[in-house]
Structures are given as structure tokens and as C-alpha cells.
Design brief:
With about 160 residues, this protein is mainly α. It is about 60% helix and about 0% strand. The protein is built from 10 helices and no strands. Helix 1 crosses helix 9 and helix 4 packs across helix 6.
Length: about 160
């Protein structure tokens, strides 16, 4: 069987741990960080309380849907983005995310102390949210594709 297969897919726990490391345990969410690591955006959305849908983030931050879509689906910044506009929009995103982070999952954000190893490990609950966000549209699509019995047949069996 050719191809990389399932083993090459990123593991949500690893993605969350990497995002925590890149953001200094969510204490350094800036436009510069988002520009350098656009792949952290879906994880940051799932770290909010409640988790923020992509369209909701776009609306709350007042940013271009194209920017967010590129960051999430292509793990990149749009190639022809105007730098000044890009920095302004990434700043808006970082401010919304920072304000909405789930303080119950990330208690060190309120205490100002360094997180313990167990707190950082517990924070990988965000990986469960990420899996749910990825799988929900897939499940909905499969449900709507399922053939439905004609109503006449249902009435005959009753």
C-alpha cells in the first residue's frame, strides 16, 4: 500500500504540546507568533472558553475570512497579504484569543505563575476539542449522505 498513511498525520496531543511550547504556554500570543506559526490558530480557537468556531473568530476579530482560512487549511499566511493589514488583523486575532482563553484549563494565566507539569499535561484536553471540531463536519456529511427510506414505505410498515 503506497502513501504515508495514518502514521504521517499529525497527532492532536503533539499539536497541542507544540502550540503550548511555541506560545510560551499561551502567555505569548502575538501577531509575530501567528505570522511565524499560523498552524497554531485552530488549537488556539479550541483553547478558548467556549471553543470558538472559525466564523465566530472572523466576526469577533473583524478580520478577513481569507486570512483565517489560509492559516487553518494551508498553515500559511496568504502570500499576497499587505504587511500593515496583516499585522493589524493578526493583532486583532491574538487579542481575541488571549481574552477568551479557558482559565479553568490554563489556571496559570490568572495566577501569573509558571504552570506545573501536570497542568501542562492536563491542558492537552484541548486535543479532544480539536478532534471533535475536525470530526463533527465529517460525521454530519456522512449522516446527510445516508439514504433515507421513502415515506410511503415507512407508512406501510406502521
Amino acid at each position: 500500500m503506497g502513501g504515508a498513511g495514518l502514521n504521517s498525520l499529525p497527532r492532536p496531543n503533539q499539536q497541542v504540546e507544540s502550540a503550548l511550547a511555541e506560545t510560551a504556554n499561551l502567555t505569548n500570543i502575538t501577531s509575530a507568533l501567528l505570522r511565524k506559526h499560523p498552524e497554531v490558530l485552530p488549537i488556539l480557537r479550541m483553547a478558548a472558553a467556549p471553543p470558538i468556531a472559525r466564523d465566530r473568530l472572523i466576526g469577533l476579530a473583524g478580520v478577513s475570512p481569507n486570512l483565517v482560512k489560509n492559516m487553518e487549511e494551508k498553515q500559511r499566511i496568504p502570500p499576497r497579504a499587505d504587511i500593515a493589514t496583516l499585522d493589524a488583523e493578526l493583532t486583532k486575532i491574538s487579542q481575541i484569543i488571549a481574552r477568551l482563553l479557558d482559565k479553568d484549563i490554563f489556571p496559570w494565566l490568572e495566577s501569573g505563575q509558571q504552570p506545573t507539569d501536570s497542568e501542562v499535561q492536563r491542558a492537552t484536553i484541548v486535543a479532544d476539542r480539536l478532534c471533535g471540531a475536525i470530526s463533527d463536519p465529517i460525521v454530519r456529511t456522512l449522516i446527510f449522505r445516508r439514504p433515507v427510506a421513502p415515506s410511503a414505505k415507512i407508512h406501510q410498515e406502521a
